[in-house]
Write a structure and sequence with these properties.
The protein has 387 residues and is of the alpha/beta class. The chain is built from 15 helices and eleven strands. It folds into two domains: 207 residues, TIM Barrel, CATH 3.20.20; 140 residues, no CATH class. The strands form two sheets. The protein has an eight-stranded parallel β-barrel with strand order 1-2-3-4-5-6-8-9, surrounded by seven helices. It has a three-stranded antiparallel sheet with strand order 7-11-10, with no helix packed on it. Helix 3 packs parallel to helix 6, helix 8 runs parallel beside helix 9 and helix 10 packs across helix 15. The protein is globular. The structure holds flavin mononucleotide.
Length: 387
């Protein structure tokens, strides 16, 4: 059989681990999967430092980098606005609501006042194609094997430049038409991101979306993303035609993850129905853990989330402030900053009941997948012998 783009990555197990945390990226790649570093929330300087560190740790083993390259956003017709222009466009009632929220939840001001850090927390996402250029330069100066576009079809020039550097290019798609657009532009691997997933999601569940995208883009390989945390789900994804699995939520409660302890606890305690598709994080619908933050934005008497990226710009300094206040290990998940501290998370939170390590997860997923496949075989044999 001819090698496909996933084979070319040279990884022993087809498990892709998306994370903003460099330790998770390294741990997943070391365990035989492909760790993919989410650059979206980090400053250019941090990305540079992290990629260098990842490469030192991995000593030639492959990893990937994921960038937010949104094609449609406020100001996209003009190639994006400056961060000052975005900040000036935030309606005063949104700032008043956020200030009032900080008072009601008793979130202290940061020392030295509320620093408006260009790359702080969620506000660090790049607002335009222009602002993504520097990250691309950094990525191209390093050696990730896979370049991933989180939000939209990457420009053809970017795909060609990545190919020249020997990288493969992947892109997330929540709809068949998006997947087809990616392939027409030259993307090598499609990540079929279903409704259950943490982060930006579409409206179609994985059981339907995966085979639809597999058929629509064949022979381009597809990774199934959304709702995959164990070997049974991995086996199901492979049975639907996926070439591998791409997971995000499951790594959040690993020992390697730098997520706040209070948020890890909220995830471990959460049931599958405790997530919501909301515009409260980025202004685009994304699946988040339900909590005080999503409740506040959903109330009829509070402002609607702003469009992307204005929303991120507006909430960035406040999320930083909440996270700093919630950082200590004894923060209560029920009150104040601990209750507010937001995170993206998928419905698989319902399957996550303890802290574990990335290596353990990769091993369990592979073993569980093999076991699920062989037990399917025995179900079929039993049925045919009974008939
Ligand atoms: C906390 C969190 C942040 C995410 N941020 C991004 C991102 O910046 N870029 C991206 O391509 N996907 C992002 N995603 C989506 C993941 O790449 C992945 O597709 C998704 O988590 C898969 O579904 P699962 O959450 O059920 O595993 C994020 C997911 C989570 C849980």
């Amino acid at each position: 059989m001819a090698l496909d783009a996933v084979d070319l990555l040279g990884i022993p197990t087809p498990i892709f681990g998306f994370s903003h945390c460099r330790d998770v990226v390294v741990a997943v790649s070391k365990a035989g999967g492909l760790g993919v570093y989410g650059a979206g929330l980090h400053s250019d300087e941090q990305i540079e430092i992290d990629l260098t560190w990842i490469e030192e740790q991995l000593d030639g083993a492959p990893y990937g980098i994921d960038l937010l390259m949104p094609s449609k956003y406020v100001g996209s017709e003009d190639g994006g606005l400056t961060s000052e222009q975005y900040r000036a466009a935030i309606p005063p009632e949104v700032t008043t609501f956020l200030d009032d929220m900080m008072v009601r939840y008793d979130v202290p001001k940061m020392e030295g006042g509320d620093v408006v850090d260009e790359h702080a927390a969620i506000g660090g996402q790049r607002y335009s194609a222009k602002q993504s250029e520097r990250i691309l330069e950094i990525a191209f100066a390093h050696h990730p094997k896979l370049l991933v576009s989180a939000l939209g079809t990457p420009p053809v020039e970017t795909i060609e430049a990545a190919h020249k550097k020997g990288m493969l290019v992947a892109a997330l798609a929540g709809r068949v038409k998006h997947a087809k657009r990616h392939v027409a532009a030259g993307v090598d691997i499609i990540i079929s991101q279903s409704y259950e997933a943490g982060g930006h999601t579409g409206e179609v569940g994985g059981m339907v979306l995966t085979p639809l995208i597999v058929d629509a883009v064949a022979p381009v390989p597809v990774l199934a993303a959304g709702g995959i945390a164990d070997g049974r789900q991995m086996a199901a994804a492979l049975a639907l035609g996926a070439r591998g699995v791409w997971c995000g939520t499951v790594w959040l409660t690993t020992v390697e993850s730098d997520l706040l302890p209070v948020v890890k606890r909220k995830i471990i305690d959460a049931a599958a129905e405790d997530t919501v598709r909301s515009r409260a994080m980025t202004g685009k619908p994304s699946r988040l853990l339900k909590g005080a933050w999503t409740d506040e934005w959903a109330r009829p008497d509070t402002p609607d989330p702003l469009p992307n990226p204005l929303h991120s710009v507006a909430i960035g300094p406040y999320v930083t402030r909440i996270e700093r206040a919630a950082a200590s290990a004894d923060t209560s998940p029920q009150h104040g900053a601990g209750a507010l501290a937001p995170t993206a998370a998928g419905q698989v939170v319902g399957l996550m009941s303890s802290e574990t390590s990335c290596r353990q997860l990769v091993i369990e997923m592979m073993e569980g997948c093999i076991e699920a496949m062989s037990s399917l075989q025995s179900v079929l044999e039993r049925d045919s012998s009974a008939g």
